[in-house]
Amino acid sequence: MRICVVGAGYVGLATAVMFGKLGHDVSVADIDDTRVRTVNSGKAPFYEPPLEKELARLVKAGALRATTEVVGSVAGARFVFICVQTPSMPSGRIDTRPVKRASKDIAKALARSEDFKVVVMKSTVVPGTTDSVVRPLLEKGSGKAAGTGFGLCMNPEFLQEGSALKDSMEPSRVVVGSMDKRSGDMLMRLYSPVRSEKVRTDLRTAEMIKYASNCFLATKISYANEIADMCVRFGIDSETVLKAAGMDPRIGPLFLKPGLGFGGSCLPKDVRALKDRAMADGYGSKLLSALLAINDRQPLEAIWLLEREIGSLQGKRVAVLGLAFKGGVDDIRETRAVPLVTELLAKGARVVAFDPMAMPSFIKVMPTIEYASSAQECLSGADGCIVQADWKQFGTLGRKEFSRMRSPVIVDGRRCLDPAKVERAGAKYLGIGYGRTETD
Ligand SMILES: NC(=O)c1ccc[n+]([C@@H]2O[C@H](COP(=O)([O-])OP(=O)(O)OC[C@H]3O[C@@H](n4cnc5c(N)ncnc54)[C@H](O)[C@@H]3O)[C@@H](O)[C@H]2O)c1
Prior knowledge:
Blueprint: E1 2-6, H1 10-21, E2 25-29, H2 33-40, H3 49-61, E3 64-67, H4 70-75, E4 79-82, H5 97-112, E5 118-121, H6 129-142, E6 151-154, H7 164-169, E7 174-178, H8 181-190, E8 198-201, H9 203-234, H10 238-246, H11 267-280, H12 286-310, E9 317-321, H13 337-346, E10 350-354, H14 359-365, E11 370-371, H15 375-379, E12 384-387, H16 399-402, E13 409-412, H17 419-424, E14 428-431
Parallel strand pairs: 1-2, 1-4, 2-3, 4-5, 5-6, 7-8, 9-10, 9-12, 10-11, 12-13, 13-14
Antiparallel strand pairs: 6-7
Helix pairs in contact: 1-3, 5-6, 9-11, 9-12, 12-13
Bound molecules: nicotinamide-adenine-dinucleotide (NAD).
Residues 6-12, 29-32, 35, 70, 83-86, 98, 101-102, 123-124, 157, 159, 161, 265-266 line the site of nicotinamide-adenine-dinucleotide (NAD).
């Protein structure tokens, strides 16, 4: 089967590689020619090693190629997946311009084609968008009616960066929303080799499932953070509390870890978008507003912990370890490092930062702070350190690195270090939601 994926980002390339691995002939169309060249050289435009390895293999075998010719690429395909970005606008509403542009190009190809193509919306869009934005553009531009001239589906993506390919190949569920039975049946057949539970529904329910999922994850994180911040003040370790709470199957252990809050390209924007969408129908969501407010507070919590230990930050050198929105990726979209560093600078601190992969993009956003070429260099001469992203390698820091600090105080903003190990190595360990327990 020939498949066209529009958008060579995380979702587009994970989808393309998944279908390539399932034996289909895949073409990836993107308006960014640098990305297209990168993909055609067998490289991923972001740090995702397992995906890149499979991408290289498929490109070499001729089973996957990229192009800037969106219309031509769609024309040759049976299924067309829209995987373009849907970023937040300042109001919180999603910016649908990339979706509209892609839809117009797809419509041109539909106009020229004889076969019944199925257009599948994979980008995250608020309920109603596929039907009220994408469908009219496809129908107007093609002169064909959805359901008879072409098929229309909504198939939200649930992958996590850092495990993009695995999550695409073995999704927790596949949601197939369709406008008509025929296109839904076709997409179900395409997904038949994927052995995950499948949910069939209409377009707007599929759109809402994605928001219901991401907003719940964001709620869990903000809830864990709220409990953690209370625990610190009560002198209790939140890790023990949340671990035991998570043993209840109604609660579950995942996403209950305290930290600097959620970032990345999805959770913050999806929470804002659902809040905005609900408001458009006169529903003010108190829950969504609260969890965003808690999220905004978390970088300040780390700074408060540091100040409590070393006093005013005026003139102090503060090391920030990890700039990506989480460890293991190079994506800085909505990283908590931005509000963290901004607040440190506002308090008069001199900030020195390090990230194993994300520094080139972070430097463009915050060019004036100091950057180090290693975690060790970053800690040298520092009066304190805040760990912002949970890179595995930070767990190996020890006496050699901490002894270079002017005052060895570590605020673990992701609870990714072993407190006892840090203290054995001669540093003071502080963490979001960290309190000593009787057994320490
Ligand atoms: N990144 C994630 O972890 C993730 C997970 C699940 C869902 N999503 C959702 O999937 C969508 C895509 O996210 P992403 O992170 O892959 O985006 P991305 O920004 O990494 O990639 C989007 C790509 O689309 C291309 N593009 C934009 N307009 C185009 C057009 N008209 N024609 C062809 N190409 C075009 C861009 O050049 C870019 O390469 C978003 O709606 C996002 O919310 C993302």
